[in-house]
Amino acid sequence: MESLAVDGFSRGSLEKVEHLLREAKKYKEEGNAWYLSKDYRKAIRCYHQSLLYIKSITQGQDTVGTLLGVNQKESLPADIQQTISKLSRDCHNNLAACIMNKDDPDYTKVISYCDLVIDDQPTNAKAHFRKGVSLYNLKDYDTALTSFLKAKDSAGASDSQINKYINMCHQANKVETQKMKATYQNMFKQMAV
């Protein structure tokens, strides 16, 4: 027989959620180990697996959550919500880092992972920086600059990499402006002839 509810969660459901969280953390740590050994494909797989366990807790749509009978209508205790939020941020941030280290990075995917982190924690310097690098590589220098400035504000300290990219964005914008001026000058010359 289950004991009384804790913050709206029965003891049995809470134990199931804690089990799913342990599994999610285990896969995240495994992903970290693969990342350090530069096996990004395996790291990505582990981070995705961790996120599936998180999803089974928060949405109850995953088979694991359904099989364990986790009732999603009950509200999660605040400490578990915080743990889930941090774990999810870490996995998405780490996924972005893995993708950036691939031979042919999908920068739009990196941006989407960073946006998930930033939505949950607007002051996450790593997510702003990775988003900025991705935007820079996609030649969206103005938006990249905005991300780097947010990363600099969030980091609190001077970071040479952030400053380097801020300068690179300013330089790239100058080059783009010069190209546009030259293009317009040529158009006006041709119109005058």
Draw up the topology in text.
Blueprint: H1 11-36, H2 40-58, H3 63-68, H4 78-100, H5 107-120, H6 125-137, H7 141-155, H8 160-192
Alpha-carbon distance between the two ends: 92 Å
Shape: elongated
Instruction: State Rg.
Output: 22 Å
String of helices and strands: HHHHHHHH
**Nearest-integer average pLDDT:** 86
Question: What fraction, in percent, of the residue positions are helical?
Answer: over 70%
Query: Count of helices?
Result: 8
Largest sheet features: none
Number of strand segments: 0
Instruction: Flag low-confidence runs.
Output: 1-8, 61-67
Give the gist of this structure:
By secondary structure, the chain is mainly alpha-helical. It contains eight helices and no strands.
Describe the structure.
Helix content is 77%, strand content 0%. The chain has helices spanning 11-36, 40-58, 63-68, 78-100, 107-120, 125-137, 141-155, 160-192. Helix 4 (78-100) runs parallel beside helix 6 (125-137) and helix 6 packs antiparallel against helix 7 (141-155). The longest helix has 33 residues, at 160-192. It is elongated. The relative contact order is 0.08.
